[in-house]
């Protein structure tokens, strides 16, 4: 059991992981066995600011994963890129998500934990946080007899995707669902579309733990284009909805460490700062050079692309400066995030700038 930690990884755990969590072998395991046949020009890859040590999680083991106890019978697993959690009950394991990059290591993690705590190792229930393959694409490993639970909106998405690695759920719900298995309890809540139209919150009140995926990224900025989310205004709101739950531990679905409550306000402020900067920039940046350059060629798309990118880059600059060293990868993804915030400001909020109602 000495590869387990107790409560969410403490500062010591983070610092220990900082040195080794993202070693080359760990990164290679993400593409393990992938037969690369094409190679891009990598001679001018950009340099980025160092990852703050507090953003990293515990070191992975030789197999490329870490499994830890959250509280009581609730555990989590990570490969430093993705996360999932599982509850060991008197009747079997309830697994929430099965990221393919953790893949077969999830079987090893569950086996190790249940061998140690004496509870049955069979996964009897699976919960899908949402339909995306990068979070549930190893569902198939748990066989056909598992009770799979998801939001009702997940069904048509998975029917459309027809991915054999993501079997359809056989239990669905609309608003909330109480799951009781072998003396353990989880509550599933739907709060509307945000990252995806079927994204749900998985709450373990007894263990003060919430799992909500692709919304809050403890210690990091959201990945590209606001985590490729489909409803940006609702995603912004969902950050606060997460904080409305009285959790002490957040399983965010990504990266190497668990979330603590202090992570919430930092990301919420980052997104607010970005929105404010985008709004100011879009109100003031002169679009005429872009029209002058591409207008004569009739290249409308070139005008949109270059002007909106200029807005995103200009708006991102002060936010990158403020959050470098605070949130990991602020310099990697803030321009992309600014671009998405800008497009949402335009098409959702009707803040159209030079593309508003013609005089
Ligand atoms: Zn997703």
Characterize the structure shown.
There is one protein chain. This protein has 359 residues and is α/β, with parallel strands linked by helices. The chain has two domains: 238 residues, Metallo-beta-lactamase, Chain A; 86 residues, no CATH class. Helices cover 36% and strands 16% of the residues. The chain is built from eleven helices and twelve strands. The strands form two sheets. A seven-stranded mixed beta sheet has the order 1-2-3-4-5-6-7, with helices on one face. Helix 8 crosses helix 10, helix 8 crosses helix 11 and helix 10 crosses helix 11. The longest helix is centred in the last third of the chain and has 24 residues. The radius of gyration is 22 Å and the shape is elongated. The protein starts with 10 loop residues before the first helix and ends in a 12-residue tail after the last helix. The relative contact order is 0.11.
In short:
The protein is of the alpha/beta class and 359 residues long.
Name a few traits of the molecule.
alpha/beta; about 350 residues; 5-stranded mixed beta sheet; Metallo-beta-lactamase, Chain A
Q: How many domains?
A: 2
CATH architectural type of the largest domain: 4-Layer Sandwich
CATH class of the largest domain: Alpha Beta
| N-to-C series of helices and strands | HHEEEEHEHEHEEEEEHHEHHHH
Gyration radius over CA: 22 Å
* Weakly predicted, low-confidence segments: 1-21
What fraction strand? 15-25%
Number of helices: 11
Structural class: alpha/beta
N-C termini distance: 70 Å
Strand order of the largest sheet: 1-2-3-4-5-6-7
What's the pLDDT, averaged over the residues?
Answer: 92
């Amino acid at each position: 059991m000495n590869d387990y930690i107790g409560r969410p990884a403490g500062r010591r755990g983070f610092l220990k992981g900082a040195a080794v969590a993202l070693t080359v072998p760990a990164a290679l395991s993400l593409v393990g066995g992938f037969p690369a046949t094409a190679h891009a020009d990598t001679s001018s890859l950009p340099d980025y600011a160092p990852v703050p040590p507090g953003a990293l999680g515990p070191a992975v083991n030789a197999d490329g994963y870490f499994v830890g106890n959250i509280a009581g019978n609730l555990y989590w697993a990570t490969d430093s890129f993705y996360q999932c959690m599982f509850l060991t009950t008197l009747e079997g394991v309830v697994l929430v998500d099965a990221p393919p990059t953790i893949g077969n290591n999830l079987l090893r993690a569950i086996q190790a934990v249940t061998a140690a705590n004496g509870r049955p190792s069979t996964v009897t229930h699976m919960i899908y946080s949402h339909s995306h393959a990068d979070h549930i694409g190893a569902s198939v490993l748990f066989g056909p007899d598992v009770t799979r639970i998801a939001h009702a909106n997940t069904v048509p998405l998975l029917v459309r995707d027809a991915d054999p690695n993501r079997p359809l759920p056989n239990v669905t719900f609309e608003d909330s669902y109480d799951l009781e298995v072998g003396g353990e309890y989880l509550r599933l809540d739907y709060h509307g579309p945000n990252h995806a139209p079927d994204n749900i919150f998985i709450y373990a009140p007894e263990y003060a733990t919430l799992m909500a995926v692709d919304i809050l990224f403890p210690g990091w900025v959201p990945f590209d284009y606001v985590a490729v989310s489909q409803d940006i205004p609702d995603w912004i709101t969902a950050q606060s909805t997460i904080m409305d739950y009285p959790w002490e531990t957040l399983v965010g679905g990504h990266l190497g460490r668990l979330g603590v409550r202090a992570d919430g306000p930092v990301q919420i402020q980052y997104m607010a700062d970005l929105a404010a900067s985008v709004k100011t920039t879009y109100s003031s940046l002169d679009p005429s050079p872009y029209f002058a350059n591409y207008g004569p060629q009739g290249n409308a798309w070139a005008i949109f692309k270059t002007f909106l990118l200029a807005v995103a880059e200009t708006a991102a600059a002060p936010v990158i400066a403020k959050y470098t060293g605070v949130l990991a990868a602020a310099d990697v993804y803030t321009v992309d995030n600014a671009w998405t915030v800008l497009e949402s400001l335009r098409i959702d909020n009707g803040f159209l700038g030079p593309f508003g109602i013609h005089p």
